[in-house]
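Q: Entry one of two.
A:
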Amino acid sequence: MKNKVLDKFKELFGAEGDIKAYFAPGRVNLIGEHTDYNGGHVFPCALTIGTYAAARKRDDDKLRFYSMNFENLGVIESSVIDLKNKKEDDWTNYPKGVIWAMQKKGFKIETGMDIVYFGNIPNGSGLSSSASIEVLTGYVLKEMFGLDVDNINIALIGQYSENNFNGVNCGIMDQFAIAMGKEKNAIFLDTADLSYEYAPIDLGSKKIVILNTNKKRGLGDSKYNERRSECETALAELQKVVDIKSLGELTEEAFEANKDAIKDPVRVKRAKHAVYENQRTIKAVKALKDNDLALFGKLMIASHDSLRDDYEVTGIELDTLVEEALKQDGVIGARMTGAGFGGCAVSIVEGDAVDAFIANVGKAYEEKIGYAADFYVVEVGNGPCVL
């Protein structure tokens, strides 16, 4: 991959000067969905698939972007002066947003760069290709301009850029999981205060299998912002009767005792998911520490049920994948992962059952949905680096 992206860079922009290659992972969230903007816990891990880049600093203010995933779009040019989100700039609004956010936070980026990206995360799959590009760009800028910024702040800058430059009201989980990834560990993150701990993922002979619906979705035009707003309204209603800053502060019992303060049955369901999912995540991490993978799997299944019934973000594609996955031998648990409305599901499967699992689920999915799903057996990897 490194050589592939460096060769493309030299072909497009020439071989002279100081060209370096970089990598940032994708991520999958094992449990804790739609809790990150509700002040709850999440449990993601970085993957060994992700986004590669080759980059070189320029002497002028010009930015030249190229993606090997969107070769038909060619080189897209911008400038580090007066950065704006433009529809015709397509995917480059993500790296542009990070440069803009860095400048807003007081970092001096006065000259441009040439940069080639190549991602082996499926686009629109919900494995955070956009957050991977954001963290990667932040890391490239840190290295290239010698900026005094740590990986947590690179994650926060990525989130800030997505919220304010690209208009997607995402939480911090994706960028944090990518920036802070650690091999063979997931990150138990409290999104209320960004306190976190690494939890070893010791699955023994079992594998993490990601199931991609291949239904494309965009966060910005999904019902993501609508769900977030429903939770914010429910929180405001609850705050009239209980002293909390976020839904993540409530136990299941406290929620049940006070839920009548929420004046709309749909908002009750949304808030219920946020509260119960947070508690499931806390229980799941304890189960993993206790080496109780059976309980971890049951909590994954309960998470999917709640995302389907209370949060209503799954849809026929994800539900089909999870239903079929749970019929197979050797499956510990399965659930949708990411924002929903398409994208991916994640499952934990006995290693010797993986081939049959993929064949059977793939066949059933294609028969019901009319097109194929893709499957990836993934490893847990590290955060961003210079290659």
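Q: Entry two of two.
A:
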Amino acid sequence: MNTLVIGPGGNLSRAAETIRRGGLVAVPTETVYGLCCDGSNESAVDRLFETKGRPEGKPISLLVSGALQAERSCGYMTPAARKLAEAFWPGPVTLVIDRRPGTSDRLAAGGDTIGVRCPGNTLALRLAYMSGRPLAAPSCNPSGAPSAVDADMALGYFGGAIECVIDGGKCRIGVESTVVSVTRDGIRILRAGAIPEEAIWRAI
């Protein structure tokens, strides 16, 4: 397979069409590159797990174009979740919310929650908006390897195995997002990341 590389000024319509057809696209965010597919397409999700070598039972978060898409397509945004979205989206905070019925069991690892994030990167936002799908988007790396922080790393990992890489240069932050559980059961910080914990609590 020839992997198409789309530069920062390139036409993203081919990448969006690739997503709609069930293909895999590496896309930059402000943290690290993500390896994306249509999160509502089970065969695409299966291929994502296989390509990454991702262990079964490990959940995958979704990239969305904003809080509206998160609530319509993914799950229930509590008042605390909405506050964090208003404070940090687009940006490096992943919110774990109560998932909507019909959301992929595999992405949720069979649980009742799903992670969602609106990335602070124009290319990733445009891809989520143009494809019209929430994007299943783990980090772009074979499981256990360092996350790709530029297009060359993404191609080194998956060139010839995926349809498309969107080259947005080097990621601005280079570390993973902060992950916060904001469900009906309460609020917990699950992973430290780009946004300090004290900023999370101040925003809530």
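A: Comment on entry two: The chain has one domain: 4-203. The mean pLDDT is 94.
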